[in-house]
Amino acid sequence: MPRFPAGFELAEALTAAARELHGTGTPDDTMHTAVTLAVRLLPDAEHADISEIQRGGRLRSLAWTDETVRFAAEPRQGGQGGHTPHPDWERLWTTPVVRTDDSEADGGGNVLSGLGLRSALSLRLRADRRRLTVLTAYARKPQAFDEDATRIGRLFTAHVSLALDSATVREQLTEAMRTRDLIGQATGILMERLDIDAAGAFDSLVKASQRENVKLRDLARRIVDANSGAGGRGVTER
């Protein structure tokens, strides 16, 4: 994909990226596609990752283009020689974009400089009171990301956020359908084994879930699995 500052080519590139993002099946697929596209879209970007930043400073990598940046937000245990996360990341709680022009400007000693990454452009994807989800592009040269790169990054992450929300909703609906089917199977098993109607079987399932402090879905799966393992015999849920 060509490097560009702005214009019609950028619009075409973002449209193509949006199609690719919305063609993914799960949130994980969306994030892994997003980091690959970020390197292709953002001028001078060499690596990219998506990280979750929790209150208190805990960091977790969710997607990455390569092993170099997998640990930019999640250092190897004992492998960074005491490096601390770059302080600019804390600013993401109050601003949607943080640009690091040179990780060695203050003498280094942070994760980015330890990995040889001089520049970073961090763009917030999601935020709530407890955690942030952030897409970050990296480069090995200082001052790699200018205002044009920042503008392209913000446009791109708007598409990523929409695609991620859409994939999350699809995943939740799929899980809801699976849960409904599972509960239906468990209800049918109880109807047969306890010789009761559907309402009574479902009520029995709910009461057992409350009594055992187990999620309804997990209890239903247990009943179905037990029935399958016993060849369809021996279920005695009350």
Automatic annotation (TrEMBL):
Residues 163-224 form the ANTAR domain. Keywords: Kinase, Transcription, Transcription regulation, Transferase. Gene3D superfamilies: 3.30.450.40, Winged helix-like DNA-binding domain superfamily/Winged helix DNA-binding domain (1.10.10.10). PROSITE patterns: ANTAR (PS50921). It comes from the Bacteria. This is ANTAR domain-containing protein. It comes from Streptomyces tendae.
